[in-house]
Amino acid sequence: MLSGFNHLTLAVTDLDRSVGFYRELLQLRLEAKWDSGAYLSLPGLWLCLSLDPARKTEPAADYTHYAFSIDAGNFPLLMARLNAAQVTPWRDNRSEGDSCYFLDPDGHKLEVHVGDLASRLKACRQAPYAGMEFFTDP
Predict the structure, then answer these.
(1) Average pLDDT of the segment spanning 84-89
(2) C-alpha 32, offset from chain centre
(3) Mean pLDDT, to the nearest integer, of 3-26?
């Protein structure tokens, strides 16, 4: 049986640029780095960056993305840093809680989000999506 999320690996085209983005801008902890990769972490997340020159295409048009949690008090600070770094947005926030959707240097779709599953379900119970059903009690 699965016991949780293990790790996330992202293909990158410039390892040093990507390590800098995740380490300095998003403040993940750099655990290890080698010629073709790096390991970074947040509590509960192991992120692997893997050098892959085949990644040099435009990001996909679908909604697949990777979301990081942030508390409400730190959200404006991170927004200021992201704006100063001129990151590329890829979507406007359309859901409960503050969110920012942006691309990393290789076009991976990222999100920082204030809130969690419980707050999302609470908001959805008040204004359900079309055809939404709930299978747990609030």
Answers:
(1) 96
(2) 20
(3) 90
**Pairwise CA distance, residues 25 & 21, whole Å:** 5
Structure tokens, 81: 């840093």
List the CATH code of the domain at 1-55: 3.10.180.10
CA pair distance 19, 29, nearest whole angstrom: 10
CATH fold of 57-128: 2,3-Dihydroxybiphenyl 1,2-Dioxygenase; domain 1 (3.10.180)
In the chain, what are the domain boundaries? 1-55, 57-128
Beta bridge partners of 110: 66, 102
Residue with tokens 């997340």: 45
This prediction has a pTM of 0.82
End-to-end CA distance of the chain: 26
User: Would you please indicate which residues are annotated as catalytic (active-site) residues?
Assistant: 111
More confident residue, 84 or 138: 84
